[in-house]
Structures are given as C-alpha cells and as structure tokens.
Amino acid sequence: MLPPHSPKLNGHVERAQRTHKEEFYAHYDGALDLGSLNRALRRWKRVYNTIRPHHSLGRRTPVRYLQERFPSMAPAA
C-alpha cells in the first residue's frame, strides 16, 4: 500500500483525486446523505468521462480516447 499524497509513487491517482476535489467536492452543495452524494458523483463521473476534455489525452474525453485507441474496450455509444 502506498502512503497518502505520494505523487512520485502514484501520480495518476493523486492527480485524479486533486481534480475531483477541485471540480466536484469544492462545489458540491447538495445534501450530505449517502444517496444524494452517490447520485451527484455518478453525474460527475459521466461529465468527467464523456464531456470534460483531458489535457493528457490530447483534449479528448476518456471515452473518445478509448474509442479511438482501443475500440474493444470503449463503452457502447
């Protein structure tokens, strides 16, 4: 198990957590019950993977990147 905040050991995960913290949790103002939070997280996950472009993927979304590079792994459209 890696220690928390170890970007040199686990940079991709640390970067994703920072993005979620800055773009989801910092702006979430809904109810704090588990059901409400899970629904909001599912909506954010859809935006993150299908709408929000990622610099590291050449300004493509993760879904588009998979469709282009690894079609058999991409979710159905």
Would you give an account of this structure?
By secondary structure, this protein is an all-alpha fold. The protein is built from three helices and no strands. The mean pLDDT is 90.
Number of separate strands: 0
Radius of gyration: 15 Å
- SSE class: mainly alpha
Beta-strand level of the residues, as a percent range? Answer: under 5%
The figure for the number of domains is 1
**What is the succession of H and E elements?**
HHH
Q: Report the uncertain regions.
A: none
Principal-axes geometry comes out as: globular
- Helices, by number, come to 3
What is the first-to-last residue Cα distance? Answer: 36 Å
Q: Major β-sheet, in short?
A: none
Fraction of residues in helix: 55-70%
Mean pLDDT: 90
Name the features.
3 helices, mainly alpha, 77 residues, globular
Helices and strands, with pairings:
Layout: H1 7-25, H2 34-50, H3 62-69
Structure, briefly:
This protein is mainly alpha-helical and 77 residues long. It is 57% helix and 0% strand.
